[in-house]
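Task: fold both queries, return tokens.
Query 1:
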Amino acid sequence: MKKIFVFILTAAMLLCAFSLQTAAADKITVYVTIANGSLVMTHEAITVTDIDGDDLITLYDALYCAHEAKFEGGAAAGFDTATGDYGLYLLKLWGVENGGSYGYYVNNAAFANLAGEIKDGDSLAAFVYQDAVGYSDVFCYFDTSTASVAEGGSVTLTLLSIGFDADWNIAVVPTESAAVSVNGSDLSTTDAEGKVTLVFDTTGTYVISASSSTQTLVPPVCIVTVSATTPETGDTMIVFVTAMMLCLIAAAAVLLARRNSYEK
């Protein structure tokens, strides 16, 4: 009887795990930033499903779902695509039609076209070129997209730009003398190494971005969360609770073993 019970329990656990894995594969969460000259989405968590039914979750699906979730009128009003010699490309982003002059990056790397597959946890950035003739807009990003700090603490960020070297190879370089803003207000400037240090005196969530007087920067984003307690204190509490749970599980296992021995 006990063997049958164990078999049924094991089968149920495997079925549950398979179901969870299948459900997870049907949708993912990605973090979307969209710029239309200025930021209109800032590293926002978007649930993405296979919209076009091609059995892949792609950049197209992510941008479609982002418009459905955040653009007034949904994807039908703000998003459109077409297929050309180089694959699927944008016709409209965040309600802007400019002849196909858009850029999109996944985890700070350029994507060939919208049909590229993406993964759970990816960070996506799409933007409307401000220079639709010379394409001089410079894609840039901070070395971290999120940061946590205690009230009164500081965060040091490095702003990096993607360009090309003399041989037209992709090059990542520090972005010097960029104006760094906090919630839309310029507060500091990056140094020769692209670094900037910001101090946060009040709890809350802050959107960090940057601009330049000499380049057209695609606005980068870092979300800083300022709490009243240090992140280390929170980590210690998590460790403590986890240890307590493990102790309770171990104690329950010992009691169960003793009970089984008595029954024998």
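Query 1 returned. Query 2:
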Amino acid sequence: MKTGNFLLWGLLIILLAVAGFFIYREFLAPEPEPTPTEIVDSNQLSDTNGIENVSAEGVVVPKREVILGFSQPGRISEVLVDEGQTVETGDPLIVLDQASLEAALRQAEAALQTARVNRQAAGTRLEQVRNTAHQAEAAVRVSAWEDDLPDEIEQPNWYFTRTEEISSTRVEVEAARRTVEIEQEDLEMVLERTSSADLLAAERRLSDAQAAFLIADQILERAQDSGDEDLEEQAQKTYDAALSELEAAQDSHDRALDTQGAERVLEARAQVAIAQERYDTAVDRLNELLTGDESLDIRLASDELDRAAAAEAEAESAVDTARTSLDESTLKAPFSGVIARLDAEPGQSVSPGVEVVTLADFDNWVIKTTDLVENDVAMLSVGMPVVVTLDAFPGREFQGTLEQIALWSEDNRGSVTYEAVVNFTPGNVPVRWGMTAFVEIEVSE
């Protein structure tokens, strides 16, 4: 047999063996018996005594700390403390240059004093005006019965009360005001639509000529009174020239009035004049009725008092602001503690919000955790007992209490963590800010 045939038969035998094994495993081999699954009671997940601990790492920090800075810009004039110094609540720490702030306060106080005087004067004027108005009102009440009314009005003077008359007159004032606006708009439309350029030019010339003539007439009268012939001669020449221009302007105006467009302009001007006179008369009538406490003088004096009172209030606010700025130029301790860090020196310029002092209360300490994961947080609640150990003091244990659990999470190297605050008392052990701590929190099932 040739070598090639031998190899072919060998390959065929191997393929048949593989196919037979596959058929046996899939169709002929017996089913294996399933291994029974052990059912575990969930209550057995905890240890036998029902207690398990949650562990976390943290850092020791003062229970109270604050970073202080100024609320206004300035230059430091004094630094009254050193790092490590103990201070009490309200102690001054750093002072800004106060020269400009003191000057601003003095200026604001002077303005307030002036505003108070003005307000008092306005109040006095109001009382004087009120007394005068009341005296005038008495005379008006008596003479009102004697006023003659047009024959077209049938009711006697006393028929309507003064309040009713004032209300009706105010309605008339407002109606007259609107009529003035309407007639003025109509006049402007007439001037735009008609060929009134000649009339307008003639009116301007006549107006100028009238003004010049009135002045020349007064000059001539004064020159005649002076008795100086030379002055009188020159004044007469000025008068004659002005009179000549006035007559020429009047003739030009008369010729311009002969056009149809000029007639429309004159009618519109007359309507404006009538409307304006109606409004002015209504206002005068209203002012006659406004006597006593309703008089215009009292209203003006009352408005003046209101403005003076508002100015006084504004000046008081300015004083408060200046006094606050001066007070805030001295940085003070908000509570008793130790100056943990100081970043200020005399002559240094500071901006609002720049940190210059860190104050801490080293009598009370807490631990803030750094790696408390979300699975453990779900088992914790405030008030649970905690055992604290510190790297700096091996073999020592401190008792603590879980005081606070953050409501928001943080991302710590891809893990969701929550900061928890543990309150503990180290006693006489000299703990320091930033020491590494470990906490064991007992969780009761």
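Both queries returned. Flag for query 2: Residues 34-49 have pLDDT under 50 and may be disordered.
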